[in-house]
Design goal:
It is a single chain. The protein has about 240 residues and is mainly α. The protein has one domain. It contains seven helices and two strands, in the order ααααββααα. The longest helix has about 35 residues. The chain is elongated.
């Protein structure tokens, strides 16, 4: 019998992932040429990279806690925190290294063309934007936004992994661990792609006008994640 709570939590995890993607500063090919703000790669690559790192952290913590005894609600919080921190570290390092290349390699200041002043620091930005570009580098507001996005994605991915593993209830079952990881990764990619289509290319973070499209993403990610949960839960149940 399929537990509706499990379905709901997996679906909620997928929505967290989809919303989190909208916080991550994605610059794509234009950013790779320092003609747009954000990291010079795509939405799916950035979100999945941070998400997979978070899943590894969450998986390690889950295995440690579940083997040691009965898995409790406080243990779930620990696993989600571990996943969130792993994802946040990954995206932070990515943005920081990219920032070093932009500033010291290309020689451009990290500024946004979407706002005249950085919403966090208050620094003037518009006078430093190169003509014909959408800004460059990773300004403070975009960096903070990216960390928030990784936090949400890490929590969402961890929620999915926990629920899938709890169906089996055996952290020593290597088949269950592998399958739960595959399904959690799959949900990450599904919601990252949906968010990518909703964003339509590049986004600077929560200050970007495109961020207002989040409600549409919530609806689409909810439906897609629900379908993923309905497929994944019975299959995980068959591993027992």
């Amino acid at each position: 019998m399929i537990d509706p709570i499990t379905i709901i939590l997996i679906t909620l995890g997928g929505v967290f992932i989809g919303v989190g993607v909208h916080f991550i500063p994605v610059g794509g090919a234009p950013a790779a040429m320092a003609q747009a703000t954000g990291v010079g790669t795509g939405t799916v690559q950035l979100a999945a990279g941070a998400g997979l790192t978070g899943l590894i952290s969450a998986g390690f913590m889950y295995n440690h806690l579940a083997i040691s005894g009965v898995f409790t609600t406080s243990d779930s919080i620990m696993v989600m925190a571990s996943g969130a921190i792993g994802a946040m570290i990954m995206i932070s390092v990515t943005m920081f290294v990219g920032q070093l290349i932009y500033v010291y390699g290309v020689g451009v200041p990290p500024v946004s063309a979407k706002v005249k002043k950085d919403p966090i620091t208050g620094d003037v930005q518009d006078i430093y934007v190169s003509k014909g570009t959408e800004g460059h580098g990773v300004p403070t507001v975009s960096f903070v936004s990216g960390v928030i996005g990784a936090l949400l994605g890490g929590i969402g991915g961890s929620m999915i992994y926990i629920q899938l593993m709890e169906i089996v209830g055996d952290p020593t079952n290597s088949g269950a661990v592998a399958l739960a990881g595959i399904f959690a990764t799959g949900v990450f990619y599904v919601n990252s792609v949906l968010a990518s289509y909703n964003i339509g290319g590049t986004i600077e973070g929560f200050h970007d006008p495109k961020f207002k499209r989040v409600p549409k993403a919530i609806v689409s990610c909810l439906i897609a994640s629900l379908l993923c949960a309905i497929i994944a839960v019975p299959i995980m149940g068959g591993v027992i």
